[in-house]
Amino acid sequence: MLSSRRVRTASESLGFLLLIGGILVALNVVGFFVHHRLDLTEKGLFSLSDGSRKVAQRLTDTLEVTAYFTEDLPPPHNATERHVLDLLDEYRAASNGRLVVKLVRPDTDDEKEQAERDGVVRVAHTTVRNDSVQQVEGYRGLVLRYLDRSEVIPAIESTEGLEYQLTMKIKELVGDRTPIGLLGGHDGPTLSKGLSRLRDCLPTYDVREVSATSEIARDLRALLVVEPRTPLSETELRYINQYVMRGGSLGVFGGSMKIDLEGFDPSAQSVDTGLNRLLRRWGVEVREGLVADARCGRVPMPSRLGIPVLVPHPVIPIVRFDEAAREHPATFRLDGAHLPFVSPLRLVPTNDSQIRVRTLARSSDEGQSWTYEEASVSLRPRPPQEWRMEGPAGPFPLIVAIEGKLPSAFGGSQTPSGQMSAPDAGAENAAPEAPAVEAPARAERDVRVFVVGGSFLLRDEIQGPQGHGETDCNLSGPLGVALNAIDWLAQDDDLIAVRAKNIADSPLDVPQNVRQAEQDALEAHRSALEAAAQGDEQTAEARVRERDAALERGKRALEEWDARKARYRWGNMLGLPAAVALFGVVRWQLRKRQRARLSL
User: Fold this and answer.
1) pLDDT > 70? residue 320
2) 116 contacts: CB under 8 Å, gap ≥ 6
């Protein structure tokens, strides 16, 4: 009886093991023939976005990717090769086999020379071996060849944003360049001075400087107007309106202030460009003045010791995008951005149901943001107590997106004699000598207009020194907003999702006590500014002490939070394996006792 029970138990165990083994073998066979991966990360970090997949699917010929990787690179680059090959395998599957990957280990002198001829550079890596610090040279780059063209990534510094780089390289090789226009003249920034970094970060666009003194080419997918410093003529406004009515997209960056950062006392001067004659008809206008915000960036200020110190600069507001804004393509998955030297916008009520106006960013709430409305505003860095909250209080719209079949800003087409066929209130200031510019009374199809009160989110001055083209673009800051906006205007929304994966994952939610300490510090800082403005130095000093105490509380709370995160991290690293091991020991003891009872 006991012997037959043991045989039956052993048979059941063997059958169960064979069944599990068969299932695993079948899954491996299916996985070999069926390429499918499950990516549960929030931003799909380990799978291709739809935009990259579409780019790969459009390949009509073989794209050869040569990956040069030296074996056994030191950390953190020892895991780069696996990530890159997995990513390239996703491209290969999406391309239906038109993308071919070749892995080269440049060990011999000939292979090293070939890698360097292809444009891949040798990189020095620091590692610790045999209790000494050593330099190890190696290669980690990619070369892409398509027809008679080639592109190279000389050295992969990080896997973050690699998909975006690869997709942009493939689009360049395929020659899929979208034409967009930049309004020239009016003393604004140009592609060679002021917007060179933007140009380098748009390799898949054919960016042209155009004039609006004549008809704007219909093949342009978008027209950008960036901080004009002189008024636009009646002719230019009418041709821009005509371009939009024919289905073109318009991006307006600035338009009421001209910013001069040169010299000892940088300043902003008001200017009437006339752009509001267009924008007001579509539901928004750019107001004069600059927005200041207690939540702001910091800039270096010379000190008496000659050492620059970082001080708050309220005219560089930091905006936060809410959940609704983070779903819009122009601000897709972005948490926030600096908006230097930005003018407030004003929403203009319209009774037109075909105009859809959406505010994407606002300044801080009342008491935390205000405006300087003087004709000239000094931008010189100075101590916090010298910034005075004198203008109207916020919040103010700062970024607005408009969609729909917009009405003509000039009420209809002009006859050859220059008389308006359908005049309205938007054209009462039209000059009598205005040329004949025919335009539909309403846009021929849904159009897009993007308006932000400043141009510095895409200017060279805040992007840092010149880098290596699109591989050196900071996509998580103001430039990310600008690039997303251009993609949205050009209706190339696929790239936005690819670029969003370059943005680092959102941090853990900040504890309430940390947020409260920051809020208390802001309130005390605002009160100190108000007291200083009223000449009450005693109250101002007391508020400064309260601010410092709140900052100290916040610092301690952050230290506690960091310690808690460390406990979570070590718990995940050691606690889970220990729990599995404990479960195994308990299971082993239970089976041991069961066998002991059977032997009796």
Assistant:
1) yes
2) 122
